[in-house]
Amino acid sequence: MTLKLHTIGEEMSKFSEWFHNILEEAEIIDTRYPIKGMHVWLPQGFQIRKNTLNILKSILDEDHEEVLFPLLIPEDELAKEAIHVKGFEEEVYWVTHGGLTPLGKKLALRPTSETAMYPMFALWVRSHQDLPMRFYQAVNTFRYETKHTRPLIRVREITTFKEAHTVHATSPEAEEQVERAIEIYSSFFDQLGIPYVVTRRPEWDKFPGADYTMAFDTLLPDGKTLQIGTVHNLGQTFARTFQITYETEEGQHEYVYQSCYGLSDRISASLIGVHGDESGLSLPPEVAPFQVVVVPIIFKKGAEEVLEFCEDLKNRLKSAGIRVHLDDRDLRAGKKFYEWEMRGVPLRIEIGPRDLKEGKIVFKRRNGAKEFLEYQENAVVEKVKGELKLITLNLKAQAWKNLQDNIREVSTIDEAKATIETKGGIVSFCWCGDEDCGKDLEELFHVDILGAQEEVLDGICIKCGQPIKYRALLARTY
Ligand code: PR8
Fold first, then answer.
1. For residues 131 and 153, what is the distance between their CA atoms, to the nearest angstrom?
2. Which residues of the chain have pLDDT under 50?
3. How far is the C-alpha of 473 from the C-alpha of 420, rounded, in Å?
C-alpha cells in the first residue's frame, strides 16, 4: 500500500491497517495475547523499547534518582485524594483475594503512582534541606480503558510507563520544574526525531488533582493527534492530602509543592507512525536494533572473498560501538533488502565481487538512493557514523515539515470545520478561554481542544466573538 501522509478519509483506515500490519510484520509486538489491551513485546520491539528507554534514562539520570515502588496500592491510600480518585475510578483493576482468602483491604493495580509514592514521601521529607527531591521509575501501570483499545496507543497494561515525581519547597520552584520537564521531554523527542506541539490542556482535560497540565501531542499520518507526554503542576493538592510537610529554616512546618510527568508506550507508537512509510518502519539510528546491515551479494565465483570482507567490515563497525548485522543467509539479496527495509534499518551496505575488485562498497540509506563509495579501511567507521547522523537529521527534518505543513490557522468556525473535515491535522484558532465556548466547539465538529499555545491580546474568539486570551489548537485525537 502507499501511505500518504496527513490525508484523510480512505487513508485513515489505511493507516490503522498499516500500523497493525507493521507491528506484526516487523515483529514489534504480538497482539494475540488473550486479554484485551495487553500485548507481548517481541525481540525487535523490545530492542526499540530498550534503546528508547535508555535515552530517556540517561537524560533523567542527570538530576533525578531512579526508584521502584510496589505495583499494589491499598484501597484507603488510593481513596484519599478525592479528585484524583474520581478521575481513575472507572479505570482501576482490583486485587480482592490472596489465594482463596478475601483480602481485608482491596489492593489496586497502580493506574499511576501518586497514591503509592506520596505516603512514603510524607515519611521522607523532613526539612528544607531535603528539597528538592526528584524521582522517577519505569514500570507497568494498569488502566481499564473503556474507550476502544489500540496496540501501543491505548492499552490496558501500559508496559513502559516512565513517571517522574518531584517535591519542592516553593510554588515558583515547582513551576520551574514544569518548565524543566518540558525541556527534558523536548530534548528526548528531538533525539527520536518526533515532532510535537506543546499546549496547556483546558481545565476539563487536566490530570485529576493537578493545578494545570502541559501536554505534548504529535500528529499521526491519518491526520489525528496523539498525546505523547504530559507534565503536571500538582501545586499542594497531594501535599495536603498526604500530609507532606517540611520544616523551614525558621522552624515552621509548610506543605510542599509537587510536579509529576510521564510518558507511555505511545513513544513507540509515534516512532513507528511518524517515520514509517509504504516500505515499513523507518527508524532513527538512535533506537534501531540494527543501525547497519551488511548484505553480501554472492555469486558462486568470489563468494568466499566477499564474505571474508563483509565479516571484517562487520567486526570493524561492531568494535566502534555500531549496532551492525551481517546477513549471510542463503537467500536472494532482493528478499533481504525488502526485509531490512521493512524493519526500518537506517543504513544498508551491499558488497559484491565486482565492487570488491573496484575497491568500492554500496551505501543505501533507508530513505535514500544508492551511493557508491571508495572503500578506505581506516575511514569507513567515521563515514558510517557520519551517515547515521545525517539519517537522523533527515528523518527529523522530514517529520517536522509534515507537522508544520499540517497546522493551519483559521479565523472562523466554518473554516475550522472545513479544515478538519477535508484536511485533518491541527487547527490553530483564537479562543476566549471560556469553557462553554471550548466545549461547544468540541461538540460541533467532533474534535478536542488540545489547549492554549500562547497568550495573545488581539483578535476575537471564533465561537463567541469576544476579545481573546489565547491562540489555541484543536484536532481530532486518539
Ligand atoms: C500521569 N502521573 O499519570 P497521564 N495507553 C497508552 N498511553 C497512555 C494511556 C493508555 N491507556 N493512558 C495514558 N497514557 C501522571 C504523570 C505520573 C506521571 C499516556 O499522567 O495520565 C498519556 O498520553 O497524563 C500520557 O502521555 C502518559 O501516559 C502519562 O499519563
1. 35
2. 1-9
3. 12
User: Is the same domain home to 71 and 165?
Assistant: yes
Beta bridge partners of 168: 257
* 226 and 366 fall within a common domain: no
For residue 181 and ligand 1, the question of a CB distance below 6 A is answered with no
- Dist CA 236 CA 209 (whole Å): 10
Q: Model confidence over 367-398: pLDDT tens digits?
A: 998 999 999 999 999 999 999 999 999 999 99
Q: What is the pLDDT of residue 6?
A: 40
Counted domains in the chain: 3
- Judgement on whether residues 316 and 231 belong to the same structural domain of the protein: no
pTM comes to 0.95
CA distance 76 to 114: 13
4: CA distance to ligand 1 center in Å?
Answer: 29
pLDDT at 13: 64
Q: Counting beta carbons within 10 angstroms of the beta carbon of residue 456, is it exposed (0 to 12), middle (13 to 18) or buried (19 or more)?
A: middle
Please report the pLDDT score of residue 10 as a whole number. Answer: 52
Q: Is the CB of 158 under 6 A from ligand 1?
A: yes
| Same-domain pairing of 418 and 327 | no
pLDDT tens for each residue of 82-115: 887 888 889 999 999 999 999 999 999 999 999 9
Residue 329 lies in a domain: yes
Q: What is the pLDDT of residue 85?
A: 80
Q: Do residues 126 and 257 share a domain? A: yes
Peptide bond into 132 cis (omega under 30): yes
What pLDDT was estimated at residue 8?
43
Q: What does the DSSP 8-state code read for residue 149?
A: P
47 and 180 co-located in one domain: yes
Say if ligand 1 is within 6 A of residue 112 CB.
yes
200 forms beta bridges with 214, 452
What the block records as the C-alpha cell of 75 is: 484501597
Closest-lying ligand 1 atom to the alpha carbon of residue 215: 26
Structural domain span for residue 445: 407-475
Q: What is the residue with the minimal CA distance to atom 9 of ligand 1?
A: 154
- Among 275, 309, 324, the domain-final residue is 275
CB 396 near ligand 1, within 6 Å: no
Asked whether 155 lines ligand 1 (CB < 6 A), one says: yes
- How far is ligand 1, taken at its centre, from the CA of residue 268, in Å? 14
224 lies in a domain? Answer: yes
Distance CA 16, CA 112 (A): 28
Do 281 and 22 touch, CB atoms closer than 8 A? yes
Cα dihedral 247→253→257→262 (10° resolution): 70
CATH number at residue 348: 3.40.50.800
Which protein residue has the closest C-alpha to ligand 1 atom 6?
154
